[in-house]
Amino acid sequence: MANAHASPVLKHHFEDLGQQHACERLGMWMFLATEILFFGGLFAAYTIYRMLYPHEFEIASSFMDRKIATVNTVFLITSSLTMTLAIRCAKLGDRAGLIRNLILTVALGTAFMVMKGFEYAHEFHENLAPGKLFRAEYAKATESVAKLSPAAAAEYFKADAASAHPAHAHWAAELALKNKAGADEVVDSGKVQMFLCFYFVMTGIHGIHIIVGLGCILWLVYEAATGGIPPENYSTVEVVSLYWHLVDAIWLFLMPLLYLAGAGMGH
Amino acid sequence: MSDPHNTTPTADDPHGVRKDLDGTGLLLVVFVAVLGLALANVGISMKMGPTKYTLVVQMAIATVQAGLVAYYFMHLRHGDKVVILTALSSLFWMGILFVLFMADYLTRFWVVG
Known about the structure:
- The complex is a heterodimer.
- Chain A is mainly alpha-helical.
- Chain A has a domain at about 15-130 and about 190-260: Cytochrome c oxidase, subunit III, four-helix bundle (Four Helix Bundle (Hemerythrin (Met), subunit A)), CATH 1.20.120.
- Chain A contains 9 helices and no strands.
- The termini of chain A are far apart.
- Chain B has 3 helices and no strands.
- The interface between A and B is large, with 67 and 61 residues.
């Protein structure tokens, strides 16, 4: 039936455009299934460690920047909308609308990565990164109040935080203070670093997926601008959008697991 | 459920690609719902604090959000059977991953006998 309306978009090994589009969608969904399993491994590992060290994971999560994460969530969800609108424009043959929505999606995705960059920079500036940086910052805070009573230590950190150039990062002061109050180490700093490992690996891999998605969408912009996406080739936009939405959906789980686990703890 | 071969050409749509065209109104409603749930998740988490139910509530909200994204934005509502099967198979395999992991870690401290 569709052969009566043959299109240069139709590849010779497909019967008609309907079959070609269905195969393209199926191929992308099969790839997405492997992506879901890839992130599934990380989510499973996170689940085990959170189950083993719930207290440390909640405290470590409370050190994360929820404001940036919330703004980033808004960026990603909005970018999913513009991406879906781009498919609609492609189907309607509205090339200007298609390019406009794709560029908006790229802008929102880029804004997400820029915010993420600021967030990482702030965390490294505060030495809130597992390994040497963390250990040195935490040891400095612990040693500063080693000979003080818990009440005097609290006063010391309060005065330090209020000064123009605080000597201690907020998180290190808080952790040192929590462990000062108990006879043994109440919060295991090693397990806090374990959370940070998950945080950097999961958000890092997610960020790489965003960058790949942005590259694909920029390619779509080029194709659309050069007339490579007529209405019957809308599925090219659709398969990229499937990938983009999956990356968005994964963020919807990362957000509560990494940023909201310690929400409402008074930071 | 649509048949991928069942395209209906018309004068202004010779390749029948507008059959499953999304309405902008519907897309905006889904967008507002997903965004609202995201903000609700932040608000509820801040109010609840870390309790034993917080994670359950957070994951329930995220699952509804992901469901809306998959069903409307990822077009599963227009999906062929084989596409829906592929999407569900990823959840099935992830279920196996979690069940086997948990069967090990949740039972390690059990005392037998």
